[in-house]
Write a structure and sequence with these properties.
By secondary structure, this protein is α/β, with parallel strands linked by helices. The chain has a 9-stranded mixed sheet, sandwiched between helices. Strands 2-9 form a two-stranded antiparallel ribbon. β10 and β11 form a beta hairpin.
Length: 235
């Protein structure tokens, strides 16, 4: 684990172009690349040692981001619990403001979530979420009606976010990869076959050049394989 944290610390010192946070994709998948059995149904894949690593990674980033689908499926706290360390700022991608007012994130006392949304969201829900303590970040829409990630990242940098951990779900991971907006990845590979929801959606890369992890390192952590490295998009 110390090797991964040293690599992360070295990456944070590197100068980034375009004034955006350094983005890390950090997620667990099965041997066949599945995140879960079915979309919307959470599945614990990694073992206890890998879960500790996940919390150490959270503590090493300024903010943590998930999509609204992950929030609705898991109702996560997105805090650091397995180790000592600061909680990253929770950020939710939620273009239509479907974040439930009774979710656990809004019950947190240490820091409320930031919600990246668009102007198409319901005005009454905006008022209700702001009254509950959420900080809304208005963003441009992408061509699918979701939050424009390329526009969001500079906003996060201006708000003081220097490093961003992206945990999922599949559509969010795919979007960061497809747009070349991630700088590095830490992937936990559980020793099982699921045949379920793939971590990366099909046919999103035109080829023949595909995103690659370079300076790749691996280690066995409990029964899980951890692979980490910088991302190269062949540009």
């Amino acid at each position: 684990m110390d090797r991964i944290e040293a690599w992360l610390a070295q990456g944070r010192l590197q100068r980034l172009a375009a004034g955006r946070p350094r983005v890390s994709l950090c997620y667990a998948q099965s041997l066949d690349g599945s995140l879960t059995h079915r979309r919307g149904e959470p599945l614990a894949l990694s073992g206890p040692d890998a879960r500790v690593l996940t919390h150490r990674l959270r503590a090493a980033h300024d903010a943590i981001l998930v999509g609204i689908g992950t929030l609705l499926a898991d109702d996560p706290l997105l805090t650091v619990r397995e180790v000592q360390g600061p909680n990253p700022t929770p950020i939710i991608l939620d273009s239509r403001l479907r974040l439930p007012l009774n979710c656990r994130l809004l019950q947190r006392q240490d820091q409320k979530p930031w919600v990246a949304t668009t102007l198409r969201a319901d005005p009454q829900q905006r008022l209700a979420l702001e009254a509950a303590g959420a900080r809304l970040l208005d963003c441009l829409q992408d061509d699918r009606g979701g939050v424009d990630l390329a526009a969001l990242l500079p906003q996060l940098a201006e708000a003081g976010v220097g490093s961003l951990m992206v945990e999922g779900g599949a559509r969010v991971i795919t979007s960061f990869l497809a747009q070349g907006l991630a700088d590095q990845a830490v992937v936990t590979i559980a020793p099982c076959f699921i045949g379920g929801l793939p971590a990366v959606e099909c046919q999103v890369f035109p080829g023949p050049i595909f995103p690659r992890m370079v300076k790749l390192e691996t280690m066995l952590l409990g029964e899980d394989i951890i692979a980490w490295g910088d991302l190269d998009f062949g540009r």
